[in-house]
Design a protein that fits this description.
Pfam families: ABC_tran. With 210 residues, the chain is of the alpha/beta class. It has a single domain, classed as P-loop containing nucleotide triphosphate hydrolases (Rossmann fold). It is 38% helix and 24% strand. It has a five-stranded parallel sheet. A four-stranded antiparallel sheet has the order 2-1-4-5, covered by helices on one side. Strand 7, helix 6 and strand 8 form a beta-alpha-beta unit. Helix 3 crosses helix 4 and helix 3 packs parallel to helix 5. The chain is globular, with a radius of gyration of 17 Å. The two termini are 20 Å apart. The mean pLDDT is 90.
């Protein structure tokens, strides 16, 4: 479980983003964070993912405070427990598609051959029909987003955070991606999705407007 307790964040004293925001996200559920642009949805996702430290309040992982830990300790938690799908895919343009999918798992010490096999399975599942040795600059925006999803799902993370994961996708692929996220949640993971799509929000187990 991941929990935000009286969470607040300010980019500057004159730019408060969140103030005393609390919510708990249970294992086995997919939650949509919704609301107009500028409400701090992406910032909240970065806070929950331990990539930003809150101005006040805390993020707890399985009941243990985590957001105030040193950078190295938070990085270890992210590596062990989290998967991320960023809004802009955040692929490394200097590395191949297959390397982008497997790099996080290999960094954690997972078996290289097993990672490559599962990566190819995921790429096929999400119809990323490009040569694995192609670079991200040689794929479309929709393909890049699906590659990022493959990377996030590769190690079956206990917590998966996704920022507009269907923003560049056609309706059919959107249904496939949302179905995969729901399946991952219902296998026992915690999935949190930032979305502007009513259809994506409706597919979640609950919706939290910001």
């Amino acid at each position: 479980m991941i929990e935000a307790r009286e969470l607040g964040f300010d980019w500057s004293p004159r730019m408060p983003v969140l103030d005393n925001w609390s919510a708990a996200f249970e294992s086995g559920t997919m939650t949509a964070l919704t609301g107009p642009s500028g409400r701090g949805k992406s910032t909240l996702l970065y806070l929950l993912g331990l990539m930003l430290r809150p101005t006040h309040g805390q993020v707890l992982i399985d009941g243990e405070p985590a957001s105030a830990l040193p950078d190295a300790a938070r990085a270890r938690i992210r590596s062990a427990r989290f998967g991320f799908v960023f809004q802009d895919a955040a692929l490394d343009s200097t590395r191949t598609v297959i390397d982008n999918v497997t790099e996080v798992a290999l960094y954690r010490g997972d078996d290289r051959q097993a990672c490559a096999h599962r990566a190819r399975e995921l790429l096929e599942r999400f119809s990323v029909d490009v040569p694995p040795l192609r670079k991200p600059t040689q794929v479309s925006g929709g393909q890049a987003q699906r590659i990022a999803l493959c990377r996030a799902l590769l190690s079956r993370p206990l917590i998966l955070l996704a920022d507009e994961p269907t923003g560049n996708l056609d309706p059919a692929t959107t249904r496939t991606v949302v179905g995969a996220l729901a399946e991952h949640a219902h296998s026992g993971a915690t999935v949190i999705v930032v979305t502007h799509s009513p259809a994506v929000a409706a597919a979640c187990d609950r919706e939290i407007p910001l």
